[in-house]
Structure formats: structure tokens, C-alpha cells
Hints:
mainly alpha; single chain
Amino acid sequence: xxxxxxxxxxxxxxxxxxxxxxxxxxxxxxxxxxxxxxxxxxxxxxxxxxxxxxxxxxxxxxxxxxxxxxxxxxxxxxxxxxxxxxxxxxxxxxxxxxxxxxxxxxxxxxxxxxxxxxxxxxxxxxxxxxxxxxxxx
Length: 137
């Protein structure tokens, strides 16, 4: 048996670990903008109904849903779009190079969330437990 075959059985758990860690770090961006935690943003906290304020709500609430694996695919789709917009509106105009424009995290989040759109949440998720409950009837 090839070594990759034995690793395949851990795929749902590795995917869940990626989902959980990405969601926790993503939520931190929302708490920073909304509550000034763990430190206030350099430009101050945005008004709640501004573009940045709505983005912060999406980061916190969407991140929480991704964390627990609830409505993973549609939420991940929305968050991937948010990160694409954030990159092209706020980062790309500063420089062509992501390392210079500060947009490397936005790009990574965008593609991690796109991955979740196509793969689903992996193990340890509300979506997974809901699917198991549906199959038991």
C-alpha cells in the first residue's frame, strides 16, 4: 500500500484543523476592528455601517460559523469574496507585490475559503453532524 493511501484517511481531520485555525485567526481581524481587541486598529475602529465595519462583522460572524463548521460552503463563498474585494480595493492599489502591499493574508484567506467551498468543512463540524443525523432517518 502506498504511503499516501494511509495518509488519505486523515484528510477530513487535516481539513478540519485548517478550517478551525484559519477561522480563529480570521475572527481576530473582526474583533480588532469591532472591539479594539487584542489591539485597536492603526486607523481607529471603523463605523459599524461603513465598508470596513460590515467587513468586520463578516469576519467575526462568518469566522465563528466557519469555526464550528456551520453553513460552511455558503459562508466560505461569501468570505472568499470579501477577501477578494479587500485585496483589490485596499491592498493592490498600494503595490503590485502582495508582500509590499500587505495583502498576502487576504490572498491566503481567499483561497482557503475557496477550498472550503469545494471540500466542505471536514471532520468535527455542525454540517457533518447534521448530515449524519439526516442519514439516520
